[in-house]
Amino acid sequence: MPEGDAVYRTAARLRAALDGRPLVRSDFRVPRYATTDLSGRTVLTTVSYGKHLLTRIDGGLTVHTHLRMDGSWWIQPAGRRLPPGDVVRLVLANAERQAVGVRLGVVELLPTEHEDRVIGHLGPDLLGPNWDPEEAARRMRRRPEETIGEALLDQRNLAGIGTIWRAETLFLAGVSPWRPVGECTGLAEMVARTARLMKRAAEQGRGPVTTGDPRPGRELWVYGRDRRPCRRCGTAIARGEMGSRPYERLVFYCPVCQPW
């Protein structure tokens, strides 16, 4: 699933293609909105919140989309042939460009004034203007018995972290994914560091770099490196699963640098 920095970059691409231009075509390929037509309306902007995308249209409407596991937005010249099959869920096009939503996990239209219905339950957005690490830490502490690995992925605590940023956040903090939140110190500082690294990745237009070395294969400390030596101590990186079925998510960690 794309994480907060990738969704942030997607919002920027949608803004570049659609902002300030009237739509000449909208094609909702979901049954609920099959007859909806936004042609003639101007796209005001697209913003991200955590892993959610909000495309605001004049007339007080917002198109809410979520990429989930496999979704993406393709930006193409207007009129280009669409991908075959039933993978396209939404098309928004102006006279020059078209944005094609492929395999989107969520597509819905709602009044802009009611955006809180879809994002109001979320914690602070690590890339948002109102990011508050203290508030994120407070929310995590509400369930002190929960593991820190699960708490970081709970979007109700803080919005935008996925499995990559979880693994790297915990390694940099020297904390085991299975340590209970109530036994963790420095939670606000932990997530504040992640926000800084995520913002850098989002602004530089590339994937996460937590080691300081952007060369291919050297960007990350532990994520995706199971059975390979820890870059810090040489111990084999371990891999496990966290969460309840069917929502288990992979977790990577160093057993020595991140003692349980």
TrEMBL record:
Top-level division of the source organism's lineage: Bacteria
Key words of the record: DNA damage, DNA repair, DNA-binding, Endonuclease, Glycosidase, Hydrolase, Lyase, Metal-binding, Multifunctional enzyme, Nuclease, Zinc, Zinc-finger
Listed Pfam families: Fapy_DNA_glyco, H2TH
GO MF annotations, alphabetized: class I DNA-(apurinic or apyrimidinic site) endonuclease activity; damaged DNA binding; oxidized pyrimidine nucleobase lesion DNA N-glycosylase activity; zinc ion binding
Residue span(s) of domain FPG-type: 221-259
One of the GO biological process terms: base-excision repair
Domain Formamidopyrimidine-DNA glycosylase catalytic: 2-91
Top class in the EC scheme: lyase
Catalytic activity: 2'-deoxyribonucleotide-(2'-deoxyribose 5'-phosphate)-2'-deoxyribonucleotide-DNA = a 3'-end 2'-deoxyribonucleotide-(2,3-dehydro-2,3-deoxyribose 5'-phosphate)-DNA + a 5'-end 5'-phospho-2'-deoxyribonucleoside-DNA + H(+)
Entry EC no(s): 4.2.99.18
Keyword Cell inner membrane: no
Keyword Chloroplast: no
Residues spanning the membrane: none
Alphabetized PANTHER family for the sequence: ENDONUCLEASE 8 (PTHR42697)
Family statement: Belongs to the FPG family.
Protein's name in the database: DNA-(apurinic or apyrimidinic site) lyase
Source species: Thermopolyspora flexuosa
Source lineage: Bacteria, Bacillati, Actinomycetota, Actinomycetes, Streptosporangiales
